[in-house]
Amino acid sequence: MHFAVAGNIGAGKTTLTNLLAKHYKWEPQLEDVVDNPYLDDFYNQMERWSFNLQVYFLNSRFRQVLQIRKSGKDIIQDRTIYEDAHIFAPNLHAMGLMTNRDFENYRSLFDLMESLVQGPDLLIYLRSSIPNLVKQIHKRGRDYENSISIDYLSRLNERYEAWIHGYDKGKLLIVDVDDLDFVSNPEDLGSIINKIDAEIHGLF
């Protein structure tokens, strides 16, 4: 089984990925944030480093997906290869932070990679309002995220909603996280697990 958790910055993807991995005894595949050599530079100078950052993420996630399928294990993945290509890269391009030439190069690379991979068996999308995202981002206090603007988060949210609306790679579960606290409240986590269980039974 290959499940993936998608959502905007601060939606709770990594936390939920870890909690679900523990519950189902699956292997979590987390986003490579700590070792990413471009993140600090990108947040300080987006226009200069946007292409490098996006190619780094694309390479990292393509490698992840190939390993997931090869391993034959039950894996839950924090963020998908599709989010970079449908949300983050086009957003940077639309904001004038990635050139046309770089964006076309990036899209061509993604199209090639996408033709070689399958979508997850189930995609869990964490839907969140902007105030909730801001609260979560401040709570975790990552230095490089201090400069993220409300406008940037709003643009990403709009693109996430558009992508999810047309998502056709497999089964989809949408979870509204604004009123959930799946870390401190076992009932909230339980309600998500119940929905996932219903989807799992539908996969067979």
From TrEMBL:
One Pfam entry name: dNK
UniProt keywords, alphabetically: ATP-binding, Kinase, Nucleotide-binding, Transferase
Listed GO MF terms: ATP binding; deoxynucleoside kinase activity
All residue ranges annotated as the Deoxynucleoside kinase domain in the record: 4-198
Gene Ontology cellular component terms for the protein in this record: cytoplasm
Protein residues bound to ATP: 7-15, 180-182
Residues the record marks as active site: 78
Record-listed substrate binding positions: 31, 43, 54, 79, 84, 145
UniProt cross-references to InterPro entries, sorted A to Z: DCK/DGK (IPR002624), Deoxyribonucleoside_kinase (IPR050566), DNK_dom (IPR031314), P-loop_NTPase (IPR027417)
PANTHER family per the UniProt record, alphabetical: DEOXYADENOSINE KINASE, DEOXYNUCLEOSIDE KINASE
Similarity-based family: Belongs to the DCK/DGK family.
UniProt-recorded name of the protein: Deoxynucleoside kinase
Organism (species): Mangrovimonas yunxiaonensis
